[in-house]
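Appendix B. Raw example, untouched.
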Amino acid sequence: MIRFVLDIIVVFIFFSSFVAKVISFENFKYEVRAYRIMNLSHLSVLPLLILCAELGLSTLFLLPIQIGFYKELIGIIFLIVLTLLTIRKDGFSKECSCYGKNHLLSSFPIQRNIIFILILLVSPFVHHPYVFEWQRAFLVFIIVVLITLIFENIRVFQEVKRGAKV
């Protein structure tokens, strides 16, 4: 059961990041540009590649595919690269726009990614007793989508509330 919960957490991490970046895509493009890792002619492709990677990782952890430690390894490498780029850009800042402006998960990006990496490191060593069928994968997907939409609605409500105070 613990492994099932860890898999749901990982699916939520990557899927909520994907949704937040799609919703704030223009802001995300500026965030990627600020990393200064590619020249401007190739820059338009990089945000799309990151979005594809996040959607692909959430799908990989969602589906009942057993490929050993490889999916965790891919997730760890992806998070390490993003963490190193964030350190290079902002140092050890307390906020980023990784999940969009004023998002709950945009606080403490380095520490957050380290926690996500630890979850991915622990996950393969937790016993895998549950049978993860396609129906359960679909149910988990629906749950993750609903939770993500709830978080996004809370974020939008907070932004509107802050805008009304100004």
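End of appendix B.
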